[in-house]
Amino acid sequence: MSSTNQINPISAFILSVLSEKSEEKSTVWLAQKREKILISGKEMDFFMAFSQASRYFKKNPLNLTEDQINEIQSLSPGLRIDLWDQLQLARVYLLLQYPAADAASWKNTLQKLFETGDMYEIEALYAALPIMPYAEEMVARAREGLRTNITSVFDAVALNNPYPATYFDESAWNQMVVKAIFMQRPLFKIQNAEQRANQELADIIIDFAHERWSAGRDVIPELWRFVGPFISEKNLKDIKKVVSSENKLERKAALLACSMSDFSEAKDLINEYPEIKKDIDSGHLTWELIGQETLEKALS
Amino acid sequence: MEMYIDPHIHVTSRTTDDYEAMRKAGIVAIIEPAFWLGQPRTEAASFKDYFSSLVGWERFRAKQFGIVHYCTIGLNSKEANNEPLAEQVMELLPLYAGKQGVVAIGEIGYDDQTAAEDKFYRLQLELAKDMDLPVMIHTPHRDKKKGTTKSMDVSEEHGLAPNMVIVDHNNEETVKEVLDRGYWAAFTIYPHTKMGSERMVEIVKQYGPERIIVDSAADWGISDPLAVPKTAALMRKMGIPEEHIRMTCYQNALAAYAQSGQMDEMDWLKAEPIDQTKKMSGNSVLRGGQVPRVEGPSDRVEN
Q1: Record's NCBIfam families (chain A) (predicted)?
Q2: Are B21 and B9 contacting, i.e. CB atoms less than 8 angstroms apart?
């Protein structure tokens, strides 16, 4: 369990950012609500403040400095507060003030907060999972977040969030990656993707690609990242098919996947494309680059 | 392209074809009042999930079609008659009334004008006052004239300012008193019965555009989600000045509900482009194989 001591520096950091970025009347309101929540300990006071934060904080970007980003990374590795907005940050601050001494009652309150939250409130909650008290007990809730069809809510769990890689078991992890592929999310924003790669996931992805191809449809190039370490005799023909694709981005992705493999025939494939091999070896061709290009293509 | 607001539509009951047609016809923003679902709910949790969908899924669904979705939160008059249930729903309301994009308490008021309806109407007027939110009043379809007068009397008894109250479902018989007393007068355009577009044109001719609001109240019954743009088109054809059309089919609704602090023209003028690639998922709005329509900056509504 995360102790209060671990949370306090984060609360202090968040408060310093909010004080710097927002108007005085907003931070005064926040201090009043904190007091009220701490003294009354009442759920309803907390719920109302959590909702009404939107009257005092805007969805403006935080524009954190490099020092601030480094600070938060040392406090909570992987937490991407730099991508949050002011309103979201204020809500997470309030969340961290709510008394958490009793695990059962805290979880019960959070359950209600999730069930009655609007789209933006729920996004704020999921993005804050890694710094919640009892974070390790929120796995079922996080999995519930993956079942949504509201993209921004799904993204709050799956993307730019260290929670899944830290706490999910293999089945939850695979469920998330497969749905992210299905929803065409930018996979490079999934944290620690390579550490959690596994054979089962690679097999599911190959099956998924076959289904799509049968329907005359494409798959997003980024998915080959999750197959790379598991290229074998069995799926080599699929990789070869993608390498010979007309689509340059797909070819690059398949070859980058080959570079993650110890399978000799995968290595041989890369050698057939010396220019791309050069980019891979020099570190110019990365999964992030492929993901970015996929995003740009989707929007053009 | 003209811009319209439909400040009363139950889109939860409408299809994506409707959303597409609405956007094409110029509707940029809508307000979905909490109402009943055609048959009475029997559990408070059903209300909770309904309210959650109004601030969650439906908001997202509308956004995919380039329409900004707001809602009002309230216990409707029909279901107020189940008193034990209504008590529980009253406890839920504060949880939702303060949320972003909730522009009023509504639609509340009278249906059969029973004692229970009166009780929960009054409690919700107090809630609106506490939350500093406008009120959307549903006037009864039976005994309308007396019910409308009573709705305003009771609202004044609780100290609400008329400019914070939108009285909906007006007709020729009720409009004069509603306007004279300083309220916003909304008109629901129904395809067959009750108020039609032709009659609406006559009302705007007679009373002018001040504080008059046109809506569709389209729901799960026979109704028309394009009632606002169609009425605007008829007004145009009948020679109503463009400024009056703009006021009755856009500006007045915005002015009335923006008093909540939760509705801002910039929400759609500066809206993110529609990105349907966001939701290519099995149960989602786009099914496999369809080509997403991604609206680029050049397609954005200007001005």
Answers
A1: EboA_domain
A2: no
* Residue B43 to chain A, least CA–CA distance (Å): 16
Instruction: Read off the amino acid at residue B145.
Output: K
**Which regions of chain B does DSSP assign to beta strands (E)?**
4-6, 27-33, 68-73, 102-109, 135-138, 165-168, 184-188, 212-215
Mean per-residue pLDDT, B276-285: 45
CA dist., res. B20 & res. B270, Å (int): 20
A240-273 residue pLDDT tens:
999 998 899 999 999 999 999 999 999 999 999 9
User: Which DSSP letter does residue B228 get?
Assistant: H
pLDDT tens, residue by residue, B215-266: 999 999 999 999 999 999 999 999 999 999 999 999 999 999 999 999 999 9
pLDDT in tens, A100-113: 999 999 999 999 99
Among all residues of chain B, which has the CA nearest to that of A51?
A: B99
pLDDT value, residue B276: 53
- Whether B299 is covered by a domain: the verdict is no
Return the pLDDT at B275.
56
Those of residues 138-197 in B touching chain A at CB distance below 8 A are none
- The pLDDT, as a whole number, for residue A83 is 96
| CA–CA distances in Å: residue A262 to residues A206, A230, A267, A274 | 18, 9, 7, 18
Structure tokens at B124: 């919700």
Can you give the pTM of this predicted structure?
Answer: 0.87
Residues β-bridged to residue B9: B218
Residue pairs spanning A and B at CB distance below 8 A? 77
Question: How far is A286 from B54, CA to CA, in rounded Å?
Answer: 41
Q: Is the pLDDT of residue A6 over 90?
A: no
Mean pLDDT of the B78-97 span:
96
Torsion angle (degrees, nearest 10) of CA A83, A85, A88, A92: 60
Best of B43, B63, B100, B283 to disrupt the A interface (most A CBs within 10 Å) is B100
Residue B50 lies in a domain: yes
Note whether A118 contacts B275, CB cutoff 8 Å. no
CATH of the domain at B201: 3.20.20.140
Q: B62, B11 in Cβ contact below 8 A?
A: yes
What is the structure's pLDDT at A40?
A: 86
Residue-range definition of the domain harbouring residue B175: 4-294
Number of domains in chain B: 1
Region of residue A63 (left: phi > 0; alpha: psi -120 to 50; beta: else): left
Q: For residue A21, what is the enclosing H or E element?
A: helix A4-21
Q: What tokens appear for B229 in the block?
A: 């743009």
Q: Crossing angle for the helix pair A86-97 and A4-21, nearest 10 degrees?
A: 150
Give the length of chain B: 303
Interface of B with A in 30-49 (CB under 8 A): 48
Taking CB atoms and an 8 Å cutoff, what residues of chain B touch A217?
Answer: 288-289
Q: Establish if B284 touches chain A: CB-CB under 8 angstroms.
A: yes
* Nearest neighbour of A149 by CB, restricted to B261, B283, B289: B283
Closest CA to B48 of B34, B60, B67, B69: B34
